[in-house]
Every structure is written in structure tokens, then in C-alpha cells.
Design goal:
- The termini are close together.
- The chain has a single domain, classed as Aldolase class I (TIM Barrel, Alpha-Beta Barrel).
- The protein contains 11 helices and 8 strands.
- Strands 1-2-3-4-5-6-7-8 form an 8-stranded parallel beta barrel, surrounded by 7 helices.
- Helices cover 46% and strands 16% of the residues.
- It is an alpha/beta fold.
- Helix 5 links the parallel strand 4 and strand 5.
Length: 241
């Protein structure tokens, strides 16, 4: 069954807007676990505009489910943070400095040598590695040569097409990419703009997805529906009927 990892960046954004500790990021993470989430995801950026580096240390010491840290390994501070905390998984994302949100996967062909080198660093430390990729078979094929354990399919294109009513068109490249990844021995994660409406079709079409990481939509739903209820709704959406 596909695991739900809750990205708590938006909770940190809200906390930071007033400079105090309300909402309490650690309490929210522990509540997410208590309400059924199988993992917690954070994506610290160099400007610490949401997740602070200290948050990562605090979370590592206290959460009980799988811990996933996302970020750009070309920032040495990020590499040092991951190695110091040794999460269950590190997800490598090719963000640029000051980028609002992730908007593309790695070019695993041109970046192949670099990815091999940095992935080896994390794997030597006993950390599972996933790399962010677009649903492009050439990129998946090259990803398999880097030593990564998993890929995370960047699902913004799927979400946009699904919202426009083109779900069959939306899912096609993802089905192909996931099938190739599995054939090449890679695990498959997915994330970006997934919500409780487009999630069931994704899971029904690609039942082999190991994990989804969801933040913005889930936290937005929680404002209206409550955090516990929202997590249960998302877990239900991950169940193939």
C-alpha cells in the first residue's frame, strides 16, 4: 500500500509569519503521526523561510515514523544537515536559490556524473535516496544508472491536466515512467500538487507507488476539515477500491 508522508513546510511558514512558536511545528508533526500519517517530509531551503535547520534536528529526535528530507544537494549546508541527522530518506531536488517551489525534475543525463557522486555520499551514510524526475522515460533510464534507490515523479503536470478534465492524457506518461522505473529496479514515489481529488486516479493507475509526499493541499484542506479528518481522507484516497 502507498504510504502517506505529510510535508509540514506550510505549518512552518505560518509559524514564521509571527516569529513565535504558534503553531508548534513539532506538535503538528507528532499529531500527523498520531492521526495516521506514515511519514513526515520537510524541505528546508537556504533562506529558512519555512523549515529552519534547527527544526530538522528537533524533528529527528522526536518523530517515530519515516523522516524524509528534501532539498538541493548542491548546497553544502543541506548535505551537512542530512548527514548530521541521517533521515530514512533524502529526496534530491534541483531547486534554484530563492525558488518559490519545486518546478522540474533533474536532467539525469547531463547531471549523471554529479548525481552518482552525491548519491554515493548519502548511501554510504545508510540513507535511502530518491531523486526528483519528470515523467520522461529517458530521464528515468538515466536515473537508474546513478545509484539512486527511488525516483519521485514530479506530478504538477498530472495535476494540471487532471483539473482540466484530461485525466487519461494526464496519467499516460506517468504510467510509462513508473513501469520503466520498476523494470529497472527503482522504487517510485510521487509528489507535487497532489490532492484528495486527483490522488485516487493516480493510485488506481499506478498501484506500485511506494510513497506520496503531500503538503500544500493537505494543510489547506485541514483548515476546513480538521487535521485528523484530512489525514484520514487522504489515506482513504490511497486505498485502491
Amino acid at each position: 500500500m502507498t504510504r502517506l508522508s505529510v510535508n509540514i513546510n506550510k505549518i512552518a511558514t505560518l509559524r514564521n509569519s509571527r516569529g513565535g512558536n504558534n503553531p508548534d511545528l513539532l506538535k503538528v508533526a507528532l499529531d500527523c503521526e498520531r492521526f495516521g500519517a506514515e511519514g513526515i517530509t520537510v524541505h528546508p531551503r537556504p533562506d529558512e523561510r519555512h523549515i529552519r535547520y534547527q527544526d530538522v534536528y528537533d524533528l529527528k529526535q522526536n518523530i517515530h515514523t519515516e523522516f524524509n528530507i528534501e532539498g538541493n544537494p548542491k548546497e553544502q549546508k543541506f548535505v551537512d544537515l542530512v548527514l548530521a541527522n541521517k533521515p530514512h530518506q533524502v529526496t534530491l531536488v534541483p531547486d534554484t536559490l530563492g525558488q518559490l517551489t519545486s518546478d522540474h525534475g533533474w536532467d539525469t543525463i547531463t547531471e549523471q556524473a554529479y548525481l552518482k557522486e552525491i548519491i554515493a555520499v548519502f548511501k554510504k551514510a545508510g540513507i535511502r535516496v530518491s531523486i526528483f524526475v519528470d515523467p520522461n522515460e529517458k530521464m528515468v533510464e538515466a536515473a537508474a544508472t546513478t545509484g539512486t534507490d527511488r525516483i519521485e515523479l514530479y506530478t504538477e503536470m498530472y495535476a494540471k491536466q487532471f483539473a482540466a478534465g484530461n485525466k487519461a492524457i494526464a496519467i499516460t506518461p506517468y504510467v510509462s515512467a513508473a513501469a520503466l522505473a520498476k523494470k529497472l529496479g527503482l522504487g517510485v514515489n510521487a509528489g507535487h500538487d497532489l490532492d484528495r481529488f486527483n490522488l485516487p486516479y493516480l493510485i488506481q493507475s499506478i498501484p506500485g507507488i511506494d510513497e506520496v509526499s503531500i503538503g500544500h493541499a493537505l494543510i489547506s484542506d485541514a483548515i476546513y476539515l480538521g487535521l485528523e479528518n484530512t489525514i484520514q481522507l487522504y489515506k482513504r484516497a490511497l486505498t485502491i477500491s
